[in-house]
Amino acid sequence: MSFEVFEKLEAKVQQAIDTITLLQMEIEELKEQNNSLSQEVQNATANHESLVRENQQLKEEQHVWQERLRALLGKMEEV
Fold it and tell me: Which protein family is it in (predicted)?
């Protein structure tokens, strides 16, 4: 009878080892996925910052053109 108990215990230990191994593999996959997503976030952040700078530059250019146009319209009205 104690042999049967030992076999059951051994099966449970093996099952626990298998479960731990699978969980470790899953952890590694999740770590890789996390690293990949972190890189994507960094890329998106850099892209966002670049777009914000470009947007600000375009707004400044638009403002300059508007001022030049107003100046030209003012000169036309004087004539």
Answer: Belongs to the ZapB family.
